[in-house]
Amino acid sequence: MQSSTILPLVAVSIMIAFLPASTVQAGAMDPGEMLSASCAGCHGTDGHSPGAIPDISGKSADFIRISLQDFRSGERESTVMGRQAKGYSDEEIRLIAEYFGQQK
Amino acid sequence: MRNLTRRNFVRMLGTVGAASSVLGWPLVSLAGKATGRVVIVGGGFGGASCAKYLSRLAPGLEITLVERDSKFITCPFSNAVLGGLYDIDFITHGYDALQKAHGVKVVHDSATAIDPGAKTISLAGGSTLPYDRLVVSPGIDIQWGAIDGYDQAASKVMPHAWKAGSQTLLLRKQLEDMPDGGVVIIAAPRNPFRCPPGPYERASLIAHYLKQAKPRSKILIYDAKDKFSKQPLFEQGWQALYPGMIEWISESEGGAIESVDIANMTVHPTFGDPQKADVVNLIPPQKAGAIAHAAGLNGDGAWCPVNQRTFESTVHPGIHVIGDAAVANPMPKSGFAASSQGKVCAAAIAADLSGQDMPEPSYVNTCYSLVGPDYGISVAMVYRMGESGIAAVQGAGGVSPKDADHAFRKAEARYSVGWYQSITSDIWA
Ligand SMILES: Cc1cc2nc3c(=O)[nH]c(=O)nc-3n(C[C@H](O)[C@H](O)[C@H](O)COP(=O)(O)OP(=O)(O)OC[C@H]3O[C@@H](n4cnc5c(N)ncnc54)[C@H](O)[C@@H]3O)c2cc1C
Asked: Is the dihedral of CA B69, B75, B76, B82 positive or negative?
């Protein structure tokens, strides 16, 4: 094997080692993205809201997670977010928060 | 890795993969990149959402969107146009962003036939498009003749305005032209139909207009049902904003319309007296858009049965049906639901064309309605796949509280407009 072909292979294996499993599955939607697609209908694509609904793009994963948990428990008052947040488990909220935390 | 978007990463993998494929490693085993031709018929809420999310997810796909009209005029907020709150430009959207920013090829033509065996569709303009996967999101068509005397010609006299555009403008003009003290009839159909709260939001916003311009007028809702979406909230709002102006006649009270007489501007209920009016908005029974019926995707019903996880037709494999045309209950036939289904369908197709599993689907719907410009109400639900199809998540969703104060209704009215701006930018921008 020539070193010129080994190098890229090594690079690929190193890159794959650093990736969460779901990211390697390019071409398929990962679970966090699937769950978060539901938010875009109100908050805009990846949370970029052009109007009266709060813009949640670029927010940290912690902010998203804590907000959803507080809306769900009723600790934070809302018109509609309580009714939305009750549709997601702790694990799903974690995936959603992680997804938004990675977007710009 | 954090700052690297997935798409860029796939591109990197592609470059490295191309080098490594010298060794006989197929690129697909590294990136699992989806390739193929996806054709989408209908650039409305379902189809355009599917196109945009598919292009985000699988940039390697060749995506063609076939849409009859050069601009899309939304039904959502068309009731606000009728009520004089907005003009038609507010609800008109184009396809530039889908083409330029998202790489979707948009063909403005009508699909006339589908050949599921050859995997091609024919267009009115004469061309034939081959596909690996076809998505059909044609919305509704009217069941002409289901109400005696109600055909296409009659809809020029008694508009349905259940597809937005010229019908909306015609109904608006009739409202502007009618005298003070006149009668407006809104005839609402039996379930299932496009936008369950739509007729009642329409009554509300027409009342808003009449209250200012022609305050002695009346609105009669003739209904082929005994109850309707968000009924207690609507009735409470009518009482607060338009006392005495809107009268609802249920099916049991003789609300179902059997025939219309356009020459005399009269509707005939199944029982009880005929009623004459100055303006008749007749919302007739509906069915899946014509192309779905032409292709037999409806089986033997009015709507198209699908696998509710992937929206693949149970009649023709390789063809997905989403939006109003599909049987997706308990999800209502709404734009929000159609968009959500478009995204789930995109995930199913991308997974399939890249030989992978799709994630567990999650679906959502929220229907905001304006009872008045500062008075909004909503019904919401989150859905997952259950044992026998789409199922509402227990404990989630529901309607706005009955005992909410004015500030709450006002906030929901603002959020209703915000929702409209967000969802239309999520789809067409
Ligand atoms: C008065 C009213 C108010 C509403 N308000 C709301 C609301 O507030 N919120 C909400 O969520 N929903 C609302 N809806 C419902 C919403 O409009 C529909 O549920 C939604 O449009 C369905 O999306 P779709 O993709 O199935 O069909 P559509 O959005 O109708 O898109 C179908 C597209 O396919 C095209 N087409 C059809 N056949 C062909 C063919 N053969 N070849 C090429 N192109 C074709 C059509 O031109 C059209 O652009 C309302 C509806 C009405 C009538």
From this structure: positive
3-class DSSP state of B346 = helix
The pTM (predicted TM-score) of the whole model is: 0.92
Pocket test for ligand 1, best of B70, B73, B75, B82 (most atoms within 8 A of CB): B75
Q: What domains can be seen in chain A, in order of their start residue?
A: 3-102 (1.10.760.10)
Q: Using CA atoms, how far apart are residues B166 and B92, in angstroms rounded to an integer?
A: 12
- Nearest ligand 1 atom to the CA of B337 is 11
Residues making up chain B, counted from first to last? 429
ipTM (interface pTM): 0.90
Q: How far apart are CA B7 and CA B406, in angstroms?
A: 46
Domains of chain B (ranges; CATH) run 154-285 (3.50.50.60)
Q: Could you tell me the CA-to-CA distances from B235 to B8, B82, B203, B231 in Å, in that order?
A: 53, 20, 11, 6
- H or E stretch at B381: strand B375-386
Contact A79 B408 (CB under 8 A): yes
Q: Indicate whether residue B72 lines ligand 1 (CB < 6 A).
A: yes
**CA nearest neighbour of B67 among B111, B128, B29:** B111
Task: Convert the pLDDT of each residue in B231-255 to its tens digit.
Answer: 999 999 999 999 999 999 999 999 9
B66 lines ligand 1 (CB under 6 A): yes
- pLDDT tens figures, B310-327: 999 999 999 999 999 999
Distance from CA of A63 to the nearest CA of B (A): 18
